[in-house]
């Protein structure tokens, strides 16, 4: 369940939450990439990719909407079974289980999260500049 917002949101609060969400996306993708190609002797012991789950949070006081990370869950993608009887982790049948990580998809996810993060930094920088210009006008 999303946390209630105590004070009305500002542009800075929305951007901060968005940046935090993008960091979670990047961390999940990097964890998945780090475990790509990992091998296990059992299907149950194989690494499963992780995915963040986001929820929207609306602030009625300000009319702004933001994002929360509600959970990070394991994917239910099935590990890839390979027959490799000479592998040290092979089971009695000579099979090993490889993590079901699509490296290309993870790289795209990481690049997209990075670009979104950069966009939010740019939005904050622009807002700061506009506020400074407004103060100079007085």
How would you explain this protein's 3D organization?
- The protein is of the alpha+beta class.
- The protein has two helices and five strands.
- The strands form two sheets. A three-stranded antiparallel β-sheet has the order 1-5-4, with no helix packed on it. It has a two-stranded antiparallel sheet with strand order 2-3.
- Helix 1 runs antiparallel to helix 2.
- The mean pLDDT is 91.
Primary descriptors:
single chain, 138 residues, alpha+beta, 3-stranded antiparallel beta sheet, 22% strand
Which segments are poorly predicted (pLDDT under 50) over 5 or more consecutive residues? none
How much helical structure, as a percent, in the residues?
40-55%
In round numbers, the mean pLDDT is 91
Strand percent estimate: 15-25%
Query: How many β-strands, per DSSP?
Result: 5
Assembly state: single chain
Shape: elongated
Helix-strand pattern, N to C?
HEEEEEH
Query: What is Rg?
Result: 21 Å
Order the strands across the largest sheet as they lie in space: 1-5-4
Question: Number of helical runs?
Answer: 2
The major β-sheet equals: 3 strands, antiparallel
- Judged by helices, strands and strand pairing, the structural class is alpha+beta
State the end-to-end distance.
44 Å
Produce the secondary structure layout.
Elements: H1 11-34, E1 39-40, E2 50-59, E3 64-74, E4 80-83, E5 95-98, H2 103-137
Antiparallel strand pairs: 1-5, 2-3, 4-5
Helix pairs in contact: 1-2
């Amino acid at each position: 369940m999303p946390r209630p917002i105590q004070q009305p949101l500002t542009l800075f609060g929305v951007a901060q939450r968005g940046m935090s969400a993008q960091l979670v996306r990047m961390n999940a993708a990097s964890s998945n990439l780090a475990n790509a190609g990992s091998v296990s002797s059992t299907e149950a012991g194989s690494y499963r990719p992780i995915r963040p789950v986001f929820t929207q949070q609306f602030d009625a006081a300000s009319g702004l909407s933001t994002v929360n990370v509600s959970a990070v869950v394991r994917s239910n993608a099935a590990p890839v079974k390979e027959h490799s009887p000479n592998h040290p982790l092979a089971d009695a049948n000579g099979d090993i289980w490889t993590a079901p990580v699509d490296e290309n998809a993870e790289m795209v996810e990481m690049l997209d999260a990075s670009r979104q993060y950069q966009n939010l930094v740019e939005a904050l920088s622009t807002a700061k500049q506009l506020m400074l210009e407004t103060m100079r006008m007085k």
